[in-house]
Design a protein that fits this description.
The protein is α+β, with helices and mostly antiparallel strands. Helices cover about 35% and strands about 25% of the residues. The protein has 13 helices and 15 strands. It has a 7-stranded antiparallel β-sheet. It has a 5-stranded mixed β-sheet with strand order 1-11-10-13-8, covered by helices on one side. A hairpin with a 5-residue loop joins strand 10 (about 215) and strand 11 (about 225). Helix 1 (about 25-35) runs parallel beside helix 6 (about 145-155) and helix 11 runs antiparallel to helix 12 (about 325-340). It is globular, with a radius of gyration of 20 Å. It starts with a strand and ends with a helix.
Length: about 350
Amino acid sequence: MGWEYQSECGRNPNTEERSETCSRPELLQRALADALDRSTCDLLKKNGWVTVDGVFGCDTAKKLRDEIKYLWNSGHMFKNSTQFGGGSKTRHRNETSIVEESGAQATKQFVKPRIHEFDMHSSYKNAMREVPFFCDLFRGFQSAPLVSMLNRLIPTLDLQKGMQSTTLKLQYNEGSGGCFPLHYDNPGRPNKRKITCLVYLNEHWKEGDGGEIELIPFGEKPITISPKLDRLVMFFSDRILHRVLPAIQARYCFTIWIDGGSRVNSDDDVLLKQKHVAMRDASKDSVREVVDAFRKSPIQRSIARCVYREAYAESLLQCQGDGGPCMVESHSATVDTLMATPSVRNAVDAIRSFIEEST
């Protein structure tokens, strides 16, 4: 079990200070940019995630929620589906490379029960009249003060500006158990996502309503964050494993994904090598060094299914309905393939023991 997050940053102090003379796209973008300062970005760099409350102000947050309600009630949203592949990994037999990226795989589409979405990237022109606030928010990424702010405070991000480098997806969860399994928002090539910005729009949320997001920084205790109105959760798309817990009541949110530059999913991020799993000795300090290195790198994705294999399987069965057993079978096959490599198996076993003792 994780612990319930309590906001470290409090409310965005700039929410009520924005000039009403600005255009709405500028106001919405400035709201996101104003949510960040050096302290929040320092937390993002340190932990891989950060949360800020009161990003847009309640009135604007409710208008955004109402636009999602309109899309749902008018039949414009589509069911969320997950592409899940089988097959095996391509192996190298040299001294440094253990597992390469997946080759051609047979994939299947699985629909998530009770989850409905609307993609602004593909439906922007058709949505201008129906959801004007979201259209203005998306249009604001042409100038992208949020991206400029993040790049200034964390230059290594190298985030890309423009609507073509940004995905904005609106989501309605019916409740009655709707959820998401463990995953990374950037699972590997050709995905270019670097930052995930998730904004919740659930007024009067209370404990027991469900729909919390659970973040799992590699090797650390899970963090449970409730989906309260006007709350921003930001994290590294390629470094924070997460899931959405079953929602009992209806749940509204939207997600912004911002692409990084050419260094996203470099060979060092996707090719598991001997250096990644090598330990000086069997001591706890040696294992801690390996865990820390994985936590700071997207290469953690290559072994996360092994390290958290039971949690992965449980979340797939919980979230995917009739497709769950098939996806668990594919997941287990992937784990077995990776664990067949002795150095990977030894490292994973040591990491799992370390996590059990530490959390």
